[in-house]
Write a structure and sequence with these properties.
Length: about 300
């Protein structure tokens, strides 16, 4: 397998953009970016960025046909990849619950999404991710020799550890799919009901954009979940060729899954998009003139609950 410079560049650009988006959300002063919705996005982003590094490391090991000298790096990357996937699924589930409560449980929203509760939710998010796969650290990475003499990383040598990890992941995917699908359907039904009753918030396109955000994130997450199902079948049946092939597909699937949130926010969130544009506009003004006046931002987000 040849090393793909183009893919490495794409991976690097995704990491840079995602990191930039997270830093900007943290730095933005607007009240909407201090809400529970964006707090969970930032918390989940750390797991997503970690997965980009770990999956990239696994891709390099496979593409460069590196052998057992990389077994410790491979093991660490596998552990991080598993934990990051669960953290990502839990984070997206929390975001879906947040949007549902913002629209369907308006009277109880402030009581549910306090700062204390958000912190507890994030701690639980990462605690579950760690506990679910801490046993994987006891595993050993297996390498096999191809017909041409090159070495390829297969996975865990201990089939029991591999299967437990796979079934744990599938269980998390089933829970994620069940909860998010049901909540998104109810959210869409409630949105249509409010639209017909003319009770939609003022800038309704923003709410609709976040509904599209939920749908896109759900589809991409389910794409990775389907990959995990095929990987489990290959591991359980001992199909080495299918195992290696589906493992390689995880790279681009993971990149789509974790890069979509920040990219879709730029398109669908008017608050995030306007803050980014204002940032670059101010930077341009600083370079053109040493004296400039910044007008106060009088925008009020109609979706601060998000």
């Amino acid at each position: 397998m040849e090393f793909s410079i183009f893919h490495a560049i794409i991976n690097g650009l995704i990491i840079l953009w995602y990191s930039f988006a997270v830093i900007m959300i943290i730095r933005f002063k607007a009240k909407v970016f201090k809400s529970a919705f964006y707090s969970i996005i930032v918390a989940t982003a750390f797991a997503d960025i970690a997965s980009l590094f770990s999956v990239g490391a696994l891709r390099l090991i496979r593409e460069l046909n590196l052998g057992e000298e990389t077994k410790y790096l491979a093991l660490l990357s596998l552990v991080i990849t598993y934990m990051a996937l669960i953290a990502h699924l839990i984070g997206n589930m929390l975001i879906t619950i947040n949007r549902y409560s913002a629209l369907c449980l308006m009277s109880r929203y402030d009581m549910i999404w306090t700062r204390r509760n958000v912190r507890i939710a994030v701690i639980i998010q990462y605690a579950i991710s760690f506990v679910a796969f801490v046993h994987v650290t006891r595993g050993n990475v297996e390498y096999i020799r191809n017909d041409d003499g090159t070495v390829a990383m297969k996975g865990f040598r201990e089939k029991q550890i591999d299967l437990i990890a796979r079934f744990t992941t599938i269980g998390a995917c089933i829970i994620y799919a069940t909860v998010t699908l049901s909540l998104n359907v109810r959210l869409l039904i409630e949105w249509k009901r409010l639209s017909r009753a003319d009770n939609v918030p003022k800038h309704g396109h923003h709410d609709k954009g976040l509904l599209l955000y939920a749908l896109l994130v759900f589809i991409c997450s389910m794409l990775v979940c389907s990959q995990q199902v095929i990987k489990t079948i290959a591991t359980f049946t001992g199909n080495t060729s299918l195992n290696l092939w589906i493992s390689l597909q995880y790279v681009w699937m993971n990149e789509i899954m974790v890069s979509l949130p920040s990219l879709s926010l730029l398109v669908l969130s008017s608050d995030f998009r306007q803050e980014i544009f204002e940032l670059f506009r101010c930077s341009k003004h600083r370079s053109d003139s040493s004296l400039f006046v910044t007008l106060p931002n009088t925008r009020r987000s109609v979706v601060e609950r998000f």
